[in-house]
Specification:
Blueprint (H helix, E strand, L loop, with lengths): L11 E5 L3 H10 L4 E6 L4 H4 L4 E4 L7 H8 L4 E4 L4 H14 L2 E4 L11 E4 L4 E4 L6 H14 L3 H18 L3 H12 L2 H9 L1 H12 L3
Helix pairs in contact: 6-7, 6-9, 8-9
């Protein structure tokens, strides 16, 4: 498997299940894709989200009916508590070339990572399904250790553009960007006062 970032706008995602696991999957795709949730019941978290819902006990219906539901889907997610039902849906997706993620059962061909994001970045972490707890731990550590990450990325973007005007040497430009990144005091200032941090960088590195 290789990691990819995919624009899911306008793409159909079918999520099978209505419990806590399904809720997390629905929240992940809600607002980013055309989501249909299929289950005999739905958690309050799912009913509060702007997604389509279809009440259905999948265990009692034919494969033909399920095929009709998943037809044309970009991605299907099996999030039932019963692995056998998830595996059944996986097999139907595999036969039709539809991407599948399995929350519990035989591995599908898509892994949904643990994600942390800001205005300027998205970081996705996966242990290839071996330990979701470790993925979550790494995400939480990143969020705790680098609360000013969004500000640093914005600062690096603007500083890089300004250095191209004031500093003719590419090697020196790269050295300055890395020096800023490795300045622990600057990270602290960014967290408390981004404007002051930018002023400090300007005074140190940008000259007419």
């Amino acid at each position: 498997m290789i990691p990819l970032f995919v624009d899911c706008s306008g793409k159909r995602v079918v999520i099978c299940g209505g419990g806590e696991v399904a809720s997390r999957k629905v929240a992940y795709f809600s607002g980013e894709a055309d989501v249909l949730v299929v289950s005999r019941s739905f958690s309050q978290k799912i009913t509060a989200l702007p997604v389509k819902r279809r009440v259905l006990d999948v265990s009692t219906v034919s494969d033909d009916l399920i095929e009709g539901i998943i037809d044309g889907a970009f991605l299907v997610i099996g999030a039932f508590s019963d692995p056998a039902q998830n595996n059944r849906i996986k097999n139907l997706c595999t036969a039709r070339g539809i991407l599948f993620n399995n929350a519990d059962g035989e591995a599908g061909d898509v892994i949904i990572p643990s994600v942390t994001m800001g205005e300027n970045y998205t970081l996705a972490i996966s242990t290839k399904g071996n330990s979701p707890a470790v993925s979550r731990f790494i995400r939480e550590q990143l969020e705790q250790r680098y609360p000013a990450l969004d500000e640093m990325i914005a600062l690096q973007r603007d500083l890089r553009a300004q250095l191209k005007q004031y500093q003719p040497s590419p090697a020196r430009r790269n050295a300055i960007l890395h020096e800023v990144l490795n300045d622990s005091a600057l990270w602290e200032t960014l967290k408390k006062d981004p404007a002051r941090a930018r002023q400090q960088v300007t005074e140190r590195f940008l000259h007419e």
